[in-house]
Queue: 2 jobs
Job 1
Amino acid sequence: MSVLSANEVFLRYDSAPSMFKKVQLDDVVMHASLRVEAGKTLAIVGESGSGKTTLARSIMGLLKPRRGSIFFENENIYNVSPLFKKYIQSQMQMVFQDPLASLNPMMNVREILEEPLLTHRYLLKESERNQKVSDAVDKVGLTAADLQRYPHTFSGGQCQRIAIARAIILEPKILVCDEPVSALDVSVQAQILKLLLELQQQMGMALVFISHNLAVVKLMAHSVSVMYKGRILEQGDTDKIFSAPQHPYTRDLIAAVPVPMYPVVHNNKGRLPFDVGLQVVCTNGCIYLDRCRYRKNVCQLSQPPLEDCGANHKSACIFANKLL
Amino acid sequence: MESILNIQDLNVHFRTTNGQIQAVRRLNLFIPKNKITGVVGESGSGKTQTFLSLFGLSQASQVSGKAEFNGVDLLSLSKSELNKIRGRDISFVFQDPMSALNPYMNVGAQILETILAHQSLSKPQAVHLAEELLLSVKMNDPRAVMKKYPHQLSGGQQQRIIVAMAIVNEPKLIIADEPTTALDVSIQAEILELIQDIHKSHSTSIVLITHDLGVVAQLCDYVTVMYAGQIVEQSITSQFFSNLKHPYSQALMASVPKFDMNQDDLFPIPGQPPVLDHEIKGCPFAPRCPHVMAVCTVKEPSMISVAPNIMAACHLYPQGAS
C-alpha cells in the first residue's frame, strides 16, 4: 500500500516579487511521479541542481505544485482543511543535511524534542511528554544527561541523532531524509545509516531517502528514482536499477563512483566528456543528449516520457532494453 | 626511492579558548618523487594542517619539526623565501573552487597573475601560455573563458581553472586538498582523470588529501592513513586494499558503503574521534578499537614495518621487530 504518491508534478520557484513585473522562472521539476510504500524506502538520487530537494519540499507540503497532485493516504495534501493538513504534517517529518544548522542554537535538547509534541500533541500531560522525550532519546542512542545540553556542544553525528529524535518523536508514517549523512565524517556516516535502518524496522515508517551517493542508496533503498535536470529518468526496484540500468545517465552515474578496490575496474570507457567549455543548451530533444554516448539522431526530436521497460522498472530512454 | 618532501617530527598546535589543540603530533612522513601519495583521514585528523603548516598557510600558534623539500628545510624559511616557492615549486588545489577564486577578477586576470608573479614573460606571451593551459585542462574556447568571472562557471569548470593555475609554473609538487569533495560524482570523475593526465604528462609529484578511499584506489600509488594527528598506516595502494593492517584502516573500510555489500555487512565504528586538547596516553584509536589490549592505553605504538611496503603503528604487531 502506498502512503504517499506524487502524480505528474511540475514545480517552479517564482522570483522575488518586483514592483513592475513578476518574473517567471522555468520549471525545476517536471513530470515527477513517485509512490512511497508503507514501511519501505524510496531513494531519490541525482546531482546537485537535479531537483531532488525541491521535490522533497513539495512532498512535505512546503511547495505547491504548479501542475499535478500529491496524495497522502488518498488525500490531496494541497487541497485539505487546515486541521487535516496539520495532521498530515505530523505524519511526515524531515531530517536535513546540515545537522547543526537544522537545530535551534537557543534551545537545549529537551526543548528541541518537546517542540513537536507541544505543536501536535498539545493534550499530552507533562509526565507523558517527558516519557516520550526520554523514549526518543533512548532510541537514537543518546542519554538522559544530554537533554540539558545545547546543540553546539555535540559533534555532527550526535546532532544528527538529535535531529532524528525530533523527527521520530511524533511516530510519523514517512520520514524524509535529505542527504542525512553527507555532512558527516566517514566513520560516523555508517552509524547514522544503521540507526535509520533500525528505527525503520522498529517503527515501520517509510523513508524517502535523498542522496547523491549511489553506494549508500543501494544499501538503504527498496526502490530508486534517478533525477536529472528536473526529470525522473529512471525509476524502479533497487536491484534492477543497479544490476541492469536502462538509462544511459544511470549507467554513467554508477560508473563514475570511485570504488575502494584495487586494481580499479574502469567501467566508464566511452563516456562522453561533459562540463567542458561552455555548455550548449539543447532546447528540444532528450535532456541527456549532450552527454549521452548512445545518442542517435532520433534523440534530438523530443524528450522521451518515463515508460515501463520491465516489471517495476521505468526508463525515459527510447533505447531502453536495447542499450548495449 | 627519492623523496620530494621529507617531514620529520612535525608538531602543529593551535591556541583556542578551550586550551591548546594538538592538531598534528610527532608526524614523520616521506613523500616519494614523481608519485601520487594519498593522505586519508577524517576531519580533524590533521591531514590538511600537516601540509598547510609546512607552507606557512596555517593559523597555527606553534609549528615545530623539520620538512625537507628540494634540499631546504621549509620551516626555517622566511616569508619572502616561502613566497618564491609557493606557486612556483609547490602549488595547491583546494576543496572549494568558488572560494579559491577571486570573485572580483575575471578568470584570465587570475591566471595571468600567477604566471607573471613567477615567470619573466611579456603580457602577450603570458596570455598565449594561459590559453594553451586552458586547452590542456580541456576548457574549450579559452578566449571566452578568460573573460568570464568565477560565478559564471560551473563548479567543475572552476576546479579546472584552479588546476590550470596549479600547473602553470610546472611545479615539482602539487598539494590537492579534497579537490573533488565539493563536486558532483560525474564531475569528480572528470577532475580525477585530469589530475591523472597531468601526473602522467608532467610526472609531477602529487599529494592527494581525501577522505574517500575510492579516490585513493583510482589515483594514488601510495596511501597514508591519519588518525588524531598521527599516521597510523602507510602502504602501497596495490596492497593496501587487500591487506589492511591497522585496525583503524580495517574499521574505516568496513564502515564505507560499497556496491557489493548488503545491510549486514556495514559495520560502523563506535564512538567519536578523540578531541586533541590534551596529551593522549597510548594509542589514540584504543577507545574505539575492537582489538584493544592492556598495553594500548599505556604505551604509544611506533610505526614499524609489518609487511613488505606496509608500515603500521599498532601493538598487534610485535614492536621492535623492525
Note: Chain A touches chain B through 46 residues (CB under 8 Å).
Job 2
Amino acid sequence: MHRPTKPRVLVAMSGGVDSSVAAALLVREGWDVVGVTMKLFEDGHALPDRPCCSLDSTSDARRVCEKLGVPHYVLNMVDHFGRDVIRDFVAEYARGRTPIPCVRCNTFTKFSDLVAKADGIDAEFVATGHYARVVDGELHRGADDNKDQTYFLWGIDRSVLRRLLLPVGTMTKVQTRAIARDLGLPRVADKPESQEICFVPDGDYVTILRRELPADAPALSRGAIVTVDGTVVGEHDGFAQFTIGQRRGLPGGHAEPLFVVALRPETREVVVGPREALLGHSVAAREVNWLVGEPPRVGDTVQVRVRHRAPLVEARVVRFDGGEIELALAAPISAIAPGQSLVLYDGERVLGGGFIEAARSIEPQHAARS
Amino acid sequence: MRSGDPRFRVGYISHMASPIYLDHAASTPVRPEVLEAMLPYYSVRFGNASSTHRWGRETRTAVDEARERVAACLGAHPDEICFTSGGTEGDNLAVLGAWRATRASGRRAVAASPIEHKAVLGAMHECAKEGAEERVLAVDATGTVDLAAARERIGTDTAVASVMWVSNEIGTIQPIAELGEHARSVGAIFHTDAVQAFGKIGIDTRTHPYDLLTVSGHKFGAPKGVGATFIRRGVTLEPLFYGGSQDRGRRPGTENVAFTVALATAMELTLAEHEREGARLKALRDRLERAIVAAIPDTVVFGRGAARAPHILNVAVPGVDSESLLMALDLQGVACSGGSACQSGSITPSYVILALGVGHEIAAGAIRMSVGALSTDADIDRVATLFPQLALKARELASA
C-alpha cells in the first residue's frame, strides 16, 4: 500500500516510459503522487499507434498508476491547447515561419494550466518526464546530452521552477528504460520514442494547415521560387510547405544544390540559394523569458542553441531592449529558422530564451560599419 | 454492505478514513445473495440450456424459472421477457428492432427525447441512416418531456417513440403513462428505458401503457452484462442477432444461465425492499441537497421542482468546473461523476444538462451524486461538509 510521507505532487503522464518512470520514482521516494494525462486535441483517439495522446497511451498511464497504487485522472485541456498551441502553430506557418509547438505547450499548457490544476488539488509540486534538472531553483541541462529537453523549456514561468520535479533528468534514456523494467513496467519500458509533434500524424503538418486555413490562404497558394538575386527558377504550391534549410521540393539541375534560405509571405516567394547563403552570423529573438535572477547583459558571452540537440555555440549579447535580444555568434550556424527557439545557456544552466525573429548573414557590427 | 466494508476499499484510497461511493447510478456491487445464486452455474450446473440431456434440462429449468421470476417482478408474462446483455442492447433491440419491424408499414418517424441515454440516441441515429426521420421531443428546464409538444410530434406516421422513465443524469421522472397512452393511441410502438427506474419507482406492465421496457442488472446488484427487455405480447421486433432459436429467436445465442439467475434474484431482492429503501435514499439525497444549497445558495440543482427519483442529485456550483471538483472529491475518497466521460476518461459537458437550456459554463460544472446500497448517514454527513468546502475552494482558485 502506498502511504505517502512527502507532499503531494501532480505528475503529467503521457503513458510513455519517461513520465511513467518519473511517477514510479516519486512513489518510491514517498511522494503523494497524483497522475494525470492531458487530453489535448479531439482526434487523438483516431491515432491508436501514436506514442502519446492516444486512447492507448491514456490507458497505459492509468495502468501504470494502478500498478503504483496512485490515483490517475484525465484532464480535458482541448480548448486551451487549441487556443494556445494549435492556433499559433497554424498562424506561424501562415506567416512563413517554422513554429515550435512543444515550447508553447510547455509554457502555456503544462507549466501554466496544469499548474493551476495542481493548485486545485493541493499539490505543492508538479513533475514531468522531461530530461532536464532543477538545481537550486534554476533549470539545468539533462544529464543525458542526447536527450536534453531544455530547448523546449525556456519559456516556462520562473516561479514554477521551485515547485518542479524532474526525476529522470539525472538519468540517461538507457537507465530510464532499465528502471522501467526493474519497476515492473515492461509495457512502457520498450515503447518507441516520441519525436513527432503530438497533434501532427506522420509529420504531415500540411494536412493540418489545409484543415485549419481557408482554401485560398496565401500560405497554401501557388507562388514563385526565386534565387537571392531575384531570378525565378520555379513554382511551388504554398510557401508553408517549406522551411529554412529545406531541399525537398526544389527544382534540380543547378550547378550546386539549392536550399530554402528565406520565405517571403507578402509576395508568396520561396527564396533559394547555395549552402553558404544559409549561414547566420547573428540571431535575434523576441518574447524573451529569463529563468535566472540575473539575466546576461549586453557584452556578456553565453552559449546558444537554435535547434533541439544542436551543439552549443558561443555568442555575445549585442543588443537587448527588454523584448528583443540579439547575439553575435562566435561561429556561424546554418539554417536558423524564424519561429524556432533561441535558448541561452551558461554551461549547464539554462538562462532563458526567445522565439527566433531573424538571422543575419553578416555580423551585426560589420553591418553597423557598412 | 456499507462503504466501511473493507471489500469495497480501493487500493490507493484505503489509507483514507472512509472512501465514499456516491455513484450508484453508474453501477452497484453484486449482492452477496446474487453471487451465491450464480455460483452453481459456474461449476456443476454448467450445461447448455439447449441440450436435451440432464445437464441441459437442469439449466433450461433455471433459465425458465428466472424468466418467470423476472416477469413477476415486472407484472409481465414470462414470454414477454427477453434477456439481454444490459441497457445498451435492450435500448437498441427496442428502438432498432421496432423500427425495422414496422418501417414496411409506411411509418417513417422515430421519436425520442434529447435526454435519452446514448444507447437510445445512437439507435435512433442508426434508424435515420436506414431512412427514418428523427424526431426529438422537447424537454423543459427541469428536464421533463413537454407532453403537449410530444403529442404533436408522435403521430400516425411514427414507428417508435422512446422516452426514459428516469433520467440517468438528473433523476427526473418522465410522464410515461401519458406518453405511452398517446403513442399507442396513434399506433406507435412505445419504449421506455427503465434502467434507472427499476427498484426506485413502481413498475407494473399490467397497468402502465408501454410496449417495450428495458432494465439493466448492474444498477441494482446483479453483474454487469445482463439485462432484460419486456416485449408486450403482439409486438414484433426484428432481432439484432441471427442464429439459433433461443429466446424465441429474439436473442439467439447460448443463454448465460448464471446471469439470468442473477438478474431474477437481484430484481426480487430489490423489489422486496424497494419502498423502505426508496424512503431511506430519498431522505439521504434530500439531506445532502439541503446541506449543499444551504452552504452555497447559488448552487444549481438540476431537475429541482420536478418529480425526481430518490437516488440522484445533480448540482453545479457556478464558477466551478466538474473536472477539478471531481478530482478533489476523489482524492478525499468521494466518488461521484460528472458530464459524460469519453472512453479516455476525459470529461466534456453533458448533452443532457445542455438540453435543459443552461449555459455551457453551468453545464461544465454538473456533478452527479447517486446514493444507493452502500450509502450511510455518516457518508452523507461527511459529503455534506466536504462538498461545499471543496467547491468553495475551487471557486476561489478559479476566480483568482
Note: The two ends of chain B are 42 Å apart (CA to CA).
